[in-house]
Amino acid sequence: MKNYDTLSEAITGLQADGYVYDFNLKSHCLECATLKLELNPEDFEVDGMFRFEGMSSTDDNSVLYAISSKNGIKGLLVDAYGVYAENISEAMRKKLR
User: Fold this and answer.
1) How many CA atoms lie within 13 A of 65 on its CB side?
2) Is residue 2 a part of any domain in this protein?
3) Which of 6, 25, 42, 57 falls between 20 and 30 A from 66, CA-CA?
């Protein structure tokens, strides 16, 4: 996968590559509200991971995941890391490493 300088550039580039759905991180799965779909750790792969650090504050750190499901759905998960990282199951933590 390509390297990106900014989060917005990465989102735009990955959307052009077909990662069009938005995923939300739940404690045990990924959720796509648009499709009313939940993906358990065994149902998806992480195709790429991109970290971005805020220029003015380390509190502005984020990570972008390019996700593809076993049934061909491709989307993006944006999540904070560090201080604001979500509480997730160990299976989800391992999958998103």
Assistant:
1) 21
2) no
3) 57
Question: What domain range includes position 74?
Answer: 7-95
Amino acid at 75: G
Residue 49 has pLDDT above 80, yes or no: yes
pLDDT score recorded for residue 2: 87
CA distance 59 to 15: 26
Dump pLDDT digits (tens) for 11-48: 999 999 999 999 999 989 999 999 999 999 999 999 99
Report the candidate in 36, 8, 40 with the shortest Cα–Cα distance to residue 21. Answer: 36
In which order are the strands placed within the sheet that holds 62-69? 37-39, 30-32, 21-25, 74-80, 62-69, 44-52
